[in-house]
Amino acid sequence: MKLTFSIALAAVSLAAGLVLYPAAHLRAQRTPIFSSTPPYVTFGMVSMTYSQSARLNALLLPMGGPVVAGSCQVTFAFLNDQGGTIASATMPITQNQAVHFNFPPLPVPIGGNTSNEIRGTVQTAFVSPSGSPLPGPSCAVVPTMEIYDLTTGQTTLLLENTHTLPEVLPLTAM
What we know:
It contains one helix and eleven strands.
């Protein structure tokens, strides 16, 4: 009887230890105030015709942690196949909200070229109450890019995968 009780007590103690140790270990980890979302990303090149348009979207996820004075902003840009900016906009974004920027529709082509190659970039920044960008982690934004038909409004292509771009520092900052 004593042996059975001892074995049962040891088994219960071992099971409790296996359950409680990981839970205690997880509580010890710190949650960062901001997400580690890269602050500057690009989508791959896409081709669109004059009957289509492109849209960049950004959804700001909740940041969690203590309330910090400031807000988030997102800068959208469309670039051509040479890397030149052909349209851009910067706008504020609120937690659990989404913003978007539409590429201006292309004119009806004259000649043989019926499509254009473009790509979209999304840059995020945490800004102070005065409106100046703050260094450090950026806001947790989920970006997407879509190509849609101007006549029907239907999305024909949705891109979710991005590639991180390095942030360029102006020479005056060095």
